Amino acid sequence: MKFTRTSRASAKASRRLAAIGLGVTLAAVGSALPASAQTTGSTTPLRAGYTGSAEEASNNKAFFEAVLDSVARKQAANPGLQSVTVYYNASQAPSFRSQISSSTSIWNSSVSNVKLQATSGSADFSYYEGNDSRGSYASTNGHGSGYIFLDYAQNRQYDSVRVTAHETGHVLGLPDHYSGPCSELMSGGGPGTSCTNRYPNATERSRVNQLWANGLAKALDKLNKVR
Ligand SMILES: [Zn+2]
């Protein structure tokens, strides 16, 4: 799906991008991301991360599986754990501290089978920030753990908490659905920059609950068979 935004924002972004220059943009990303993350595709259109591509869909799936596996390993090591907790480290995204905190509250009040929790130590996934022509996205570092990248320009164009909650929705297993209405969180940039809904709808909430009830059981089962 084509990226949609207001022409004024578009012109501003173009000027800004022209001023920054691609080389500097990539260099800035390079310093913020794990080395292996820099090799993922760079041929998607400007700010595609919030409005979609086939590559995004497979990245999102791989990311969810990485997080699921990470949580399952912990669960297997501590069978007494009652609730499923996904830990995140936000130390590499200091500008988005309040958005990440809001997104965490939104998700924790919306679903019951999985909880998000901040940690300064080793985490199931991490948040990063910077400039990237691909926009914001969820991906894996290629070594079994996931990260969410938050793009500065995109977070100025769109409601920043919505962007953060949307990307976090990928951690919890939801795919993109850009043709959906603003009332869906996973419609992302589809409904345009005027959409400020930050909450998953009932269908999205029940899908996450289901994924973490059934998906985690399956991931645990797989781990146990390998042993
Ligand atoms: Zn997305």
TrEMBL record:
Quote the subcellular location field of this record: Secreted
Q: Which residues form the signal peptide?
A: 1-37
Any single GO BP term: proteolysis
Q: Which UniProt keywords apply?
A: Disulfide bond, Hydrolase, Metal-binding, Metalloprotease, Protease, Secreted, Signal, Zinc
Gene Ontology molecular function: any one: peptidase activity
Q: What EC number(s) does this enzyme carry? A: 3.4.24.77
Family matches, as InterPro entries: MetalloPept_cat_dom_sf, Peptidase_M7
What reactions does this protein catalyze? Hydrolyzes proteins with a preference for Tyr or Phe in the P1' position. Has no action on amino-acid p-nitroanilides
Q: Which cofactor does it need?
A: Zn(2+)
Which enzyme type, at the first EC level? hydrolase
Q: List, alphabetically, the SUPFAM superfamilies matched.
A: Metalloproteases ('zincins'), catalytic domain (SSF55486)
Main localization (coarse): secreted
Among its keywords, does the record have Secreted? yes
Extract the NCBIfam families matched here. snapalysin
What family does this chain come from, according to its entry? Belongs to the peptidase M7 family.
The entry's protein name is Extracellular small neutral protease
